[in-house]
Design brief:
By secondary structure, the protein is of the alpha+beta class. It folds into two domains: 246 residues, BirA Bifunctional Protein, domain 2 (2-Layer Sandwich); 90 residues, Rossmann fold (3-Layer(aba) Sandwich), CATH 3.40.50.800. The chain is 36% helix and 23% strand. The strands form three sheets. It has an eight-stranded mixed β-sheet, with helices on both faces. Strands 13-12-14-15-16 form a five-stranded mixed β-sheet, sandwiched between helices. Strand 12, helix 12 and strand 13 form a beta-alpha-beta unit. Helix 5 runs parallel beside helix 9. The longest helix is centred in the first third of the chain and has 17 residues. The two termini are 45 Å apart. 38% of the residues are buried. The protein binds adenosine-5'-triphosphate and magnesium ion. The site of adenosine-5'-triphosphate has 18 residues, from strand 6, strand 10, strand 11 and helix 11.
Length: 420
């Protein structure tokens, strides 16, 4: 083996891609039910988009981006999150001139972050994300939280805890920043280097810092919820009323602030407890000024991102079985010189929409059956000397051993019958 995959990346093998396709299908259905349509944006963007959009005090922009100069000397960055690209696309294509809200989702979007690889943390991962542009109502926040919650519970993931918080808006947050800074100022020496570094411009981040030292220091910090302005308070209450009306369990957690600068008002995370501690599977919130920050109209918006690898990891941990579609419906075996007839049979079955195959490696009849068994094909179709002479084929159910010999022309219809 000369070259290995880069650290923190993971192949999806042909034998496991059905698991991805399964959850992707559920995600598409969930998005479509609420009117979200797919958007596809480039894997790379101008670095400036993330510096401006995500914010240069964030971990993502400070430490985690894959940034390089291209041959034209432009600074290019591989997407470290999905929202900035979606907002750029929304703006660039003037989608704000259409009737709002504009609802879009992206699926399987590769996201690149230079992180220390560990369980549930990769350098390339994939997200399902939804963005709703132009809706200021808390119903939009609530529908996203519900969509994520129902999707994940529908996939069988239990013990989901829905955490919501409001981090206010440019009217009320500066006051809170002041209060929090006063509180943290005395404790600065006990905070980690990162929290000290962003103390001036983004003190909020100390609240969700994962380092135990910082967590201990912020335990009794003042809460943003106590200083929300009337507008933010009413919005947060409406959100809770909607969630209560739907009866989903949630908790207000004033420690959730999210890592990205663009958030305003609602932020939320869906968290599950695993053997290795808490795992956030979905995170999102409102970003009412991101579009304006990118040079567009001042339009409210809300969205979330959900990590596909983490969804699959949780499903694995809970032992949820994803139905494995067998590779073939029928495997064609043949004797000696009846290869052309066998090949023709395979192709005619495929023309009828039946997933069929035959040996391509010169195996004996016995070895062909052994291989057919290995593929898990429920049926075999054999052309031996007798069948070749009579223009027929012998179909066999590999499990029940039921056999039927029929004219080749009826093979497709009989296969369908035998498959039930
Ligand atoms: P964390 O706190 O775990 O670092 P985050 O706040 O950086 O997460 P977001 O930017 O909100 O994560 O990304 C949305 C979702 O994408 C996360 O909830 C998670 O499911 C997934 N995710 C984020 N980073 C990674 C990663 N490095 N590897 C795998 N999945 C990830
Ligand atoms: Mg992170």
């Amino acid at each position: 083996m000369l070259i290995q995959a880069p650290r923190g990346t993971k192949d999806v093998l042909p034998t496991e891609s059905y698991r991805w396709q399964f959850i992707e299908q559920k995600m598409r259905e969930a998005a479509a039910l609420a009117g979200y349509r797919e958007v596809r944006t480039p894997v790379f963007e101008h670095t400036e988009l993330f510096a401006r959009g995500v914010g240069d005090t964030t971990d993502i922009v400070q430490k985690e981006m894959y940034t390089f100069q291209d041959k034209g000397n432009r600074s290019i960055t591989l997407k470290p999150e999905g929202t900035a690209g979606a907002a750029r696309c929304f703006l660039e294509s003037n989608l704000y001139a259409d009737a709002l809200p504009c609802k879009m989702y992206y699926l399987d979007a590769p996201i690149f972050r230079y992180e220390a690889p560990q369980s549930g943390r990769l350098r390339e991962h994939h997200q399902f994300g939804l963005e709703c542009f132009g809706a200021q109502g808390a119903t939009a926040d609530a529908e996203l939280i519900l969509l994520a919650y129902r999707l994940l519970s529908g996939l069988g993931i239990r013990n989901l805890s829905v955490n919501i918080n409001s981090i206010g808006c440019p009217n009320c947050r500066p006051k809170y920043h002041g209060m929090l800074k006063d509180y943290l100022a005395d404790r600065l020496d006990s905070l980690c280097e990162d929290c000290r570094g962003r103390f001036d411009r983004n003190p909020l981040r100390a609240l969700d810092c994962k380092k135990p030292g910082c967590q201990a220091q912020v335990k009794d910090a003042p809460s943003m919820l106590d200083v929300l302005c009337d507008d933010c308070r009413a919005h947060f209450e409406e959100l809770q009323a909607c969630l209560k009306a739907e009866g989903i369990p949630f908790q207000v957690n004033s420690r959730i602030v999210r890592g990205l600068d663009y958030y305003t008002k609602t932020v939320f995370e869906l968290i599950t407890a695993t053997e290795d501690g808490n795992l956030t599977v979905c995170g999102g919130g409102r970003y009412d000024h991101l579009v304006a920050q990118l040079g567009g109209p001042d339009l409210p918006a809300v969205g979330f991102g959900m990590g596909l690898e983490r969804v699959l990891m949780l499903m694995d941990a809970e032992g949820i079985r994803i139905p494995d579609p067998k590779q073939y419906d029928v495997f064609v075996t043949y004797m000696g010189d009846h290869l052309p007839q066998a090949f023709h049979l395979v192709e005619s079955l495929r023309k009828e929409g039946i997933r069929a195959d035959m040996d391509h490696c010169g195996r004996s009849l016995k070895a062909q059956f052994k291989y057919a068994n290995k593929t898990g094909a429920p049926l075999s179709a054999t052309i031996g000397d007798d069948e070749a002479a009579a223009g027929s084929v012998k179909l066999k159910n590999m499990e029940t051993r039921e056999e039927r010999t029929v004219p080749v022309g009826e093979a497709g219809a009989t296969v369908r019958e035998m498959l039930g």
